[in-house]
């Protein structure tokens, strides 16, 4: 008897959505969940996220790192069936909305404001970072999907890019343990970079413009890149902001290319049979549309600021939820190999950004 049939009378196939917006034929009907099923998980990760935000404000520590640590500490609670639906919702749908809202932070004017020389240097930095991460992942026996996750997170905007790439890769490309360790790696590397790079820029005598480019082109997290720039000078902070936002603008194209590159033949065949899958994830399309709107229209700064605050909150919820759904023993099993691509990509980003700064910026 074939799947989806009872006796001689065929019954309609039952389809269910997985966590990556794909569809598959389910063995049994998937129960419809009302809003109340999501409330316990959302309340749990929301409380943890508020605790992380409070501690970050008190101790000037990166909020994403604290959210990750608190989520891991509560991973025992994340395995309970009552909170699982809400945590999965925060880790997927809410994260996707947060990624889409980042489109209001970038525009074509910000990208072209760098100048063609600096923009070319920035593209070289990002491309080189991703290539080195891919090569390192292969060297240590990890998959190309994991190498792209580590390289993309390092090259674009840290945890935000990691969440976006993870959502676009599809099922079973990268496990939660490796994703969680990637978040740890980019958060630690970004915190170290924010502390050291401004001092390095001053030690080698960079101008404000050059220092802003170096910091904006090599620090992973957007807030830390901007903070590091302003730690050097106000002019450097402004230039680091523009440089970093130019990197963020590459998020949409990179995620779209990732979804295409990592799609295997089985995914393509199933998509053709269904005729339902978009050529790129919906949140990437939304990101690009908002970026185009921000370029073409005079959107009030207050709206963009509120969108950024909401995006940060949703991404923090996602990081906490993913950490809570991870299992600590899986993190230990992943081992040092998981951190090698992030470390190699971070060093490459710094080296290439330094070279591009000296050769192409402020001349």
UniProtKB/TrEMBL annotation:
Q: What's the protein's topology in the membrane?
A: Multi-pass membrane protein
InterPro entries for the chain:
UPF0324_pro
Q: Which GO terms describe its cellular component?
A: plasma membrane
Q: Where in the cell is it found?
A: Cell membrane
Q: Which Pfam families match?
A: Cons_hypoth698 (PF03601)
User: Where does it primarily localize?
Assistant: membrane
Alphabetical keyword list: Cell membrane, Membrane, Transmembrane, Transmembrane helix
Keyword DNA damage appears in the UniProt entry: no
- Specify the superkingdom: Bacteria
**Protein family per UniProt:** Belongs to the UPF0324 family.
The name of this protein is Uncharacterized protein
């Amino acid at each position: 008897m074939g799947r989806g049939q009872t006796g001689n009378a065929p019954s309609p196939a039952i389809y269910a959505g997985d966590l990556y917006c794909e569809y598959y034929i389910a063995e049994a009907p998937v129960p419809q969940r009302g809003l109340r099923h999501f409330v316990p998980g959302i309340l749990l990760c929301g409380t943890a996220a508020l605790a992380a935000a409070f501690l970050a404000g008190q101790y000037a520590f990166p909020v994403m790192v604290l959210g990750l640590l608190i989520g891991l500490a509560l991973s025992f609670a994340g395995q309970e069936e009552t909170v699982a639906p809400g945590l999965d919702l925060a880790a997927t749908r809410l994260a996707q909305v947060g990624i889409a809202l980042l489109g209001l932070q970038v525009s074509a004017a910000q990208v072209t404001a760098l100048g063609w020389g600096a923009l070319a240097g920035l593209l070289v930095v990002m491309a080189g970072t991703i290539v080195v991460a891919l090569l390192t992942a292969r060297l240590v026996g990890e998959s190309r999907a994991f190498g792209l996750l580590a390289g993309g997170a390092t090259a674009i905007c840290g945890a935000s890019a990691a969440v976006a790439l993870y959502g676009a890769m599809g099922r079973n490309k990268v496990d939660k343990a490796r994703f969680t360790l990637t978040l740890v790696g980019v958060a630690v590397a970004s915190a170290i970079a924010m502390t050291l790079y401004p001092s390095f820029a001053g030690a080698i005598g960079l101008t404000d413009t050059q220092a802003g480019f170096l910091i904006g082109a090599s620090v992973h997290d957007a807030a830390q890149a901007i903070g590091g720039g302003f730690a050097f000078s106000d002019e450097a902070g402004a230039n680091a902001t523009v440089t970093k936002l130019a990197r963020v603008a590459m998020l949409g194209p990179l995620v779209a290319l990732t979804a295409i590159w990592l799609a295997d033949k089985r995914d393509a065949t199933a998509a053709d049979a269904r005729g339902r899958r978009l050529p790129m994830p919906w949140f990437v399309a939304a990101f690009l549309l908002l970026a185009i709107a921000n370029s073409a229209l005079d959107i009030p700064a207050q709206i963009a600021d509120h969108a950024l605050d909401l995006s940060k909150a949703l991404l923090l919820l996602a990081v906490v939820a993913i950490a809570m759904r991870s299992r600590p023993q899986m993190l230990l099993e992943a081992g040092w190999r998981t951190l090698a691509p992030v470390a190699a990509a971070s060093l490459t980003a710094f080296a290439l950004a330094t070279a591009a700064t000296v050769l192409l910026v402020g001349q």
